[in-house]
Every structure is written in C-alpha cells, then in structure tokens.
C-alpha cells in the first residue's frame, strides 16, 4: 500500500463520529438509526473501492450528510412514477392498465379507511362470500348463472382447468395453443393444472369431426381459446362455440372458453372489428367463460369466470 493510498484511507471518517454530527440527527429521526448506519457502512465500502481503483476519494466524501440524505430520499420515493401513455395501446399492461373513475378511486379509499362487509352478511349476521356483490353484477351484464373472481385471467384459466379437468384430458384446437405476454402458454397452464392436452386439427384448419374423434372416456372439457394477439388468414377453418356446444351436448362434455378480453359491446356498429362477447358465448351454452376484468370492464386487474352455477361452485370449492 502506497503512502498516498494510506493517506486517503485515513481521511475516511468513523461511523460513530459521523452520527454525533448534528446534521445526522434529523436523518436518524426520519429514516431510523439502523438504516442510516447500514447506508454509512455501504458508503464506506464504496469509498474504499474507489480508493483502490483510482487513488481518489469520491466527491461526496466532502459532505456525507448531504449524500446520505439524497440517497435515502430517493430510496423512500415510490417506484411508481406518473407517465404519459404515448404507446398507442390504450390499456397498456405495463403502465398500470385501466385508469379508474374518480368515484371508483373514492370508493377504494373509503374501503381502506374503515372495516367493510367484504365477507360478512349483515342480513344473516354471519360469514358471507366476497364474490357475491360482484357476481350479481357480472351475471346481470353477461346473462350467466354465477361468477367467480380471481387475480388475473391466467389465474382464471388455471383455476378453471384445475377444478374441472385435473387428471383428465382437455381437447383444444392446435391453432389456439396461444402464448401471450409474460410467457403465458396454454400447454404450460394445462400441465400446471394437472390436465392432459389433447390437441386436434392443424394450425390453420380444425373441423368438428376433429373434436369428435378426440373425445374418449377420459375427456373432461372441450376448450376454445380466443387468439386475441394474432390471426391466421387465408385457407382456414374453425368451429364456433355454438357448434362446439352442440357437439359437447351430444357427447356429454362441457365446453369452456378462454376469451382473454373480448367486448361487451358489438364494436362492428362503430366500424371496428367485431370481438367475441361473453354474453353471446353464455347464450350459446358455453359452461365457463374467462376474461380479463381490466381489459373488458376497464376496472382493476382481475380474472373473471362466468358460467353455469354448478361449474362455478366447483371453482369456488377448489380455491
């Protein structure tokens, strides 16, 4: 070690001497003694590294309190910063998704300020169910018999499969084995749910007879997956939910649909491409339909499953 290096090391202050300085009193009051000491130890290590590498002291060594204040202030700031969405994607999943109406924001704030009847039934003076209020509204707008709400649509699909088809086969068109953002893949979700994927048809063409030939004594579900983030054009063929439901009734196999998002309004009347609508799928006889609450309803992130009461009951008991 050179004389110069030894001299630089000697200029580094002891932590207890720094803490006795009046400028550190407010920092300790604000951030706590332990956190301030931890940061000072980290900064001393950094300073020693700089000395070893460049034979100089970091510039902030001239004012330790100021540097500690700056670092702790930045650390205390929320990682979530307001931005302007110029991506062209209205509901951007990486930018907080749907903006909430002021009435909704106020309702959330009110619910966080005091106890609420989340799972308590005032009429029966006993435990209720947290899905009840939302389920009634969802049934009203989709025509379903019952509804179930989870964290996101990926969780909804996983629950739907695990509760109704674990240990059995699920028949899906090869052209609908999608992957969406976050590496959410239908084959992977099926494995996690304990199902066996039975893919039918080809990438561009799947017929009703493909499903019929795939059904056996171990088949639990016929599944449709909305390919919302891509399309196959040209020489194509797919059967819709109504046709698949008719086949399912004939073979005594329920049909479920991962809608992803879809729409509650027929957008074609406004000159936009028509998206599948959950109320149409329910009317067609689909047993369970899952979709994303924030994308479809403009609410907070949620996975929503609507459908037949007995099927929803199996999901509720599985959670």
UniProtKB/TrEMBL annotation:
What are the UniProt keywords, alphabetically? Cytoplasm, Protein biosynthesis, Pyridoxal phosphate, Selenium, Transferase
Alphabetical GO biological process terms: conversion of seryl-tRNAsec to selenocys-tRNAsec; selenocysteine incorporation
Reaction(s) catalyzed by this protein? L-seryl-tRNA(Sec) + selenophosphate + H(+) = L-selenocysteinyl-tRNA(Sec) + phosphate
| Protein's UniProt keywords contain Transport | no
The molecular function GO annotations come to: L-seryl-tRNA(Sec) selenium transferase activity
Q: Which Pfam families match?
A: Se-cys_synth_N, SelA
What cellular component GO annotations does this protein have?
Answer: cytoplasm
Q: Which InterPro entries match?
A: PyrdxlP-dep_Trfase, PyrdxlP-dep_Trfase_major, SelA-like, SelA_trans, SelA_trans_N_dom
Tell me which domain of life the UniProt entry assigns to the organism this sequence originates from.
Answer: Bacteria
PANTHER family named among the record's database cross-references = L-SERYL-TRNA(SEC) SELENIUM TRANSFERASE
What the protein does comes down to: Converts seryl-tRNA(Sec) to selenocysteinyl-tRNA(Sec) required for selenoprotein biosynthesis.
Protein's name in the database: L-seryl-tRNA(Sec) selenium transferase
Native organism is Escherichia coli
Tell me the organism's taxonomic lineage: Bacteria, Pseudomonadati, Pseudomonadota, Gammaproteobacteria, Enterobacterales
